């Protein structure tokens, strides 16, 4: 019965994701913004937005980004284009009660406050305070509320503000459309084209994660009428398992997908140098039942060999590293090498849960294992 609850939960989540036509954004290019993880850091996202919007920014595009942004949010007919070059774009603008608005645009007598919410929660009376700081009791203005999907702010944050005082905009629709239009208006050779493309990929990742969370919450139906449902119980048990569950899933993946060649097998960790056994997940045995290597995971997946033949060093030249053996008085080293579905020497991060396992690619290291075994035989 408990197993059925898990199966039902997974089916429900999968159905919801398919119905929303959700899929991860992928790219073969290196994206520095993803490396820095800015999709998880609101302050960095705001800095990037501000830098692009600023007419005096280092992008060299002058007021073009600001003009197209104002057009996207419906302001292009109200503000004279000649005034844009003198616009002020500020970040974390302080209010009377020591709060800070994420992005502020001032153009002459016009004020456009933008509050960005990606992963953080609304604070009590936050938008209400921002609005009254800039517009006092004049309820003929709007404050902008920017989120991944354009959701509305909480009642506690909006206070006495009505729907007409808050304009909800989204990264998924408004910011993406703005960046697309801006890219189309920049010469192809301009380096800003690549920067904008990287930013769009970060936004796609951010929005896909937001959708995934929403679908999971939808699957568990977390509301007053169904807090006792089986899906919620199953999800809580999964979350409680956390790290241990992921470690078992990836171990089963390695058992299933790593191909060693005839006569070799993966076994549970044994005879691991004690200084390094915290990262060891499996041992590799040869036809003589001798351990010739270990499978380790720190950040990436890698193989540590007892010894390596000259042919193995030559075959994979430049890809081997030495792992110091702290217990050896002669300071010998265990050679190690990264590997994964994309080949020998390639990084494959498995320290945290990753959808990369869904591809179910086999990991072929038959030749590497054979050459390592030759080194052991000759040792």
From TrEMBL:
<protein>
    <submittedName>
        <fullName>PD-(D/E)XK nuclease family protein</fullName>
    </submittedName>
</protein>
<dbReference type="Pfam" id="PF14281">
    <property type="entry name" value="PDDEXK_4"/>
</dbReference>
<dbReference type="InterPro" id="IPR029470">
    <property type="entry name" value="PDDEXK_4"/>
</dbReference>
């Amino acid at each position: 019965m408990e197993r059925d609850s898990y199966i039902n939960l997974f089916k429900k989540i999968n159905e919801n994701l398919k119905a929303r036509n959700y899929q991860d954004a992928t790219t073969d290019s290196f994206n520095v913004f993803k490396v820095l993880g800015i999709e998880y850091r609101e302050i960095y996202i705001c800095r990037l937005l501000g830098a692009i919007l600023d007419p005096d920014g280092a992008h060299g595009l002058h007021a073009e980004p600001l003009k197209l942004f104002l057009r996207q949010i419906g302001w292009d007919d109200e503000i004279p284009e000649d005034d844009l070059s003198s616009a002020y774009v500020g970040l974390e603008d302080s209010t009377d009660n020591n709060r800070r608005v994420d992005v502020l645009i001032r153009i002459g007598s016009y004020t456009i406050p933008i509050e960005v919410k990606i992963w953080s929660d609304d604070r009590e009376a936050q938008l209400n305070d921002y609005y009254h700081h800039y517009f006092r009791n004049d309820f003929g203005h709007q404050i902008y509320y920017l989120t991944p999907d354009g959701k509305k702010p909480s009642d506690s944050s909006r206070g006495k503000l009505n729907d007409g005082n808050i304009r909800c905009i989204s990264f998924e629709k408004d910011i993406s459309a703005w960046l697309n239009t801006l890219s189309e208006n920049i010469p192809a050779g301009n380096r800003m084209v690549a920067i904008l493309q990287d930013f769009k990929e970060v936004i796609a990742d951010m929005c896909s994660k937001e959708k995934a969370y929403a679908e999971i919450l939808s699957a568990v139906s977390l509301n007053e009428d169904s807090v006792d449902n089986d899906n919620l119980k199953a999800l809580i048990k999964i979350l409680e398992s956390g790290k241990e569950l992921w470690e078992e899933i990836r171990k089963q993946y390695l058992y299933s997908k790593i191909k060693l060649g005839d006569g070799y097998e993966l076994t549970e960790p044994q005879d691991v140098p004690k200084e390094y056994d915290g990262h060891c997940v499996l041992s590799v045995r040869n036809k003589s039942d001798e351990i010739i290597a270990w499978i380790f995971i720190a950040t990436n997946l890698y193989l540590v060999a007892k010894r390596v033949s000259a042919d193995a060093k030559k075959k994979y030249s430049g890809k081997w590293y030495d792992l110091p053996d702290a217990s050896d008085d002669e300071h010998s080293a265990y050679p190690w090498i990264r590997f994964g579905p994309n080949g020998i020497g390639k990084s494959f991060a498995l320290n945290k849960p990753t959808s990369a396992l869904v591809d179910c690619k086999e990991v072929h290291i038959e030749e590497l294992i054979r050459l390592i075994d030759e080194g052991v035989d000759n040792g």
